[in-house]
């Protein structure tokens, strides 16, 4: 296990690293850590002189510590995805430097542009009102259009093609289920027969994808920034992969992200969402595939909660939100079973 | 709950010391936090998960395994002793879950060779047991406070 560079010495280390990258001295101000996320650590890094003068800018540094939820980490997939999406209709921060060499900051890392805006929280407290209608509908349209744009990107000629490993429209679902089955085997601290049963059902009912696309993997409210009603950036690309675009639709439609409403991610009426998405993405949405991937997403979410419980139990984190997340495995598996039942 | 009782207590105490006390200036409030830590440490050595809750889960599993074993010509499960330490109950719950998973896998794999009615009944019993386990888990869990945990404010 490599030691993460502590917050106080991180600034000078960043200055040294950036100087090597740009070939001239830079000054780094007080590094500020954001208190969000359970996985990658996120820091705001004020830098002066990146362009060689007195220019001031703020970068985002993301570190994937070996005690994090999904550790061990690699910056590779998200950087490849972000580079692949430059110049497309998907708004996202520009990725700069990255490395998996833990000798530099004690963990894999990536630097990217800081984009302005705030996140809309997916969870609401009991009795909290929904979003104002005009604002919500505006965000819903952008949320839908950006997802469709992501799934239309011709990835075959871009860096993310390195993640293809022989994926096809026919094998995309099975490969995905097998990957999460292996993660559950690694993370579960006790047997979950309902998860085993769900995995068998998912393997026996794999749909053929309409195309192989870049799948965000965690596309929902909370993972984009908005400013003045405009989505300025899609964030958190750590679960990005190639697969069936229906997977992102299934994930976005999880009841956990509806905030007590009937709206997808607290934003979009389901019927309009699928219709608009299909028109923009250029294929007819299969509701059977959406339900399949909703069931899969519930298994994936259960697995994430198993990871949280293990991460806490092994003492890698004392963050009390982790066991709280870990206590939600039963909720996800129950919903998964109901979703599967609804397809029979 | 998927974490062990002592680890949760350790985590709560560590969080209170490292994340709360370091940001709390009021002397009385700090005293209250130390009082809570003291009590949590007492719970760690004197308390454990509820046996009643676990026994309900185990009874549901046992009834299903009993029925399914008869339908599938398998050995009947061993009865649960009336008074058993929590650690043994947890181990028993896990062992019975492994058995449920194995029998369901067998039903799936050998469905064509089994009597259709026996296969269907055994599957229904085992799935009912899985459902009972998660339903009991959900009935014994408070409303999650994810909105409050994300915002740090009372809902």
Main sheet of chain B? none
Tell me the greatest interface. Answer: A-B, 39 and 44 residues
From the N-terminal CA to the C-terminal CA of chain A, the straight-line distance is 47 Å
Give the percentage of residues in beta strands of chain B: under 5%
Average pLDDT reading of chain B: 90
- Tell how many strands the DSSP assignment of chain A holds: 11
Estimated radius of gyration of chain A: 20 Å
What's the β-strand tally of chain B? 0
Percent helix of chain B, as a range, is: over 70%
Domains of chain A, number: 2
Overall 3D shape of chain B: elongated
- Regarding quaternary structure, what we see is heterodimer
Helical proportion of chain A, percent range: 40-55%
Low-confidence stretches of chain A: none
Major beta-sheet overview of chain A:
6 strands, antiparallel
Question: In whole angstroms, how far apart are the ends of chain B?
Answer: 23 Å
Superfamily (CATH H level) name of the largest domain in chain A:
Aminoglycoside phosphotransferase (APH), C-terminal lobe
């Amino acid at each position: 296990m490599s030691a993460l560079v502590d917050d106080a010495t991180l600034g000078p280390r960043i200055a040294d690293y950036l100087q090597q990258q740009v070939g001239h001295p830079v000054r780094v101000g007080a590094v500020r850590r954001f208190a969000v996320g359970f996985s990658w650590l996120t820091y705001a890094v004020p830098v002066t002189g990146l362009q060689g003068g007195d220019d001031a800018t703020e970068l985002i540094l993301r570190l994937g510590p070996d005690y994090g939820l999904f550790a061990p980490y690699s910056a590779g997939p998200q950087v490849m995805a972000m580079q692949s999406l430059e110049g497309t209709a998907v708004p996202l921060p520009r990725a700069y430097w990255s490395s998996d060499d833990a000798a530099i900051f004690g963990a894999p890392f990536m630097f990217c542009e800081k984009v302005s805006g705030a996140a809309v929280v997916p969870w609401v407290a009991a009795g909290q009102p929904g979003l104002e209608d005009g604002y919500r509908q505006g965000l819903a349209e952008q949320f839908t259009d950006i997802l469709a744009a992501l799934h239309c990107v011709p990835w075959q000629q871009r860096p993310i093609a390195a993640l293809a490993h022989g994926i096809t429209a026919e094998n995309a679902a099975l490969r995905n289920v097998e990957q999460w089955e292996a993660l559950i085997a690694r993370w579960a601290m006790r047997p979950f027969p309902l998860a085993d049963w769900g995995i068998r059902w998912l393997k026996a009912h794999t749909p053929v994808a309409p195309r192989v696309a870049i799948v965000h993997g965690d596309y929902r409210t909370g993972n984009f920034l908005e400013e003045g009603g405009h989505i300025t950036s899609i964030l958190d690309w750590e679960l990005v992969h190639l697969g069936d675009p229906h997977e992102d639709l299934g994930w976005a439609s999880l009841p956990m992200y509806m905030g007590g409403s009937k709206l997808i991610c607290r934003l979009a009426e389901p019927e309009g969402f699928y219709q608009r998405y299909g028109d923009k993405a250029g294929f007819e949405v299969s509701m059977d595939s959406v339900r399949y991937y909703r069931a899969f997403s519930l298994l994936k979410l259960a697995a994430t909660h198993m990871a949280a419980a293990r991460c806490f139990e092994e003492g890698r984190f004392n963050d009390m939100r982790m066991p709280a997340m870990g206590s939600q495995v039963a909720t996800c598996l129950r919903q998964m079973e109901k979703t599967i039942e609804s397809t029979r | 709950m998927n974490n062990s009782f002592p680890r949760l207590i350790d985590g709560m105490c560590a969080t209170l010391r490292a994340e709360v006390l370091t940001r709390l200036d009021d002397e009385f409030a700090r005293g209250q936090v130390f009082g809570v830590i003291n009590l949590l440490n007492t719970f760690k050595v004197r308390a454990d998960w509820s046996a009643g809750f676990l026994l309900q889960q185990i009874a549901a599993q046992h009834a299903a395994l009993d029925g399914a074993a008869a339908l599938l010509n398998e050995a009947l499960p061993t009865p649960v002793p009336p008074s058993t330490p929590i650690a043994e109950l947890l181990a028993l719950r896990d062992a019975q879950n492994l058995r449920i998973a194995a029998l369901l896998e067998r039903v799936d794999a050998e469905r064509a060779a089994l009597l259709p009615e026996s296969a269907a009944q055994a599957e229904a019993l085992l799935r009912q047991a899985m459902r009972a386990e998660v339903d009991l888990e959900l009935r014994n869990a408070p409303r999650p406070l994810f909105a409050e945990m994300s915002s740090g404010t009372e809902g």
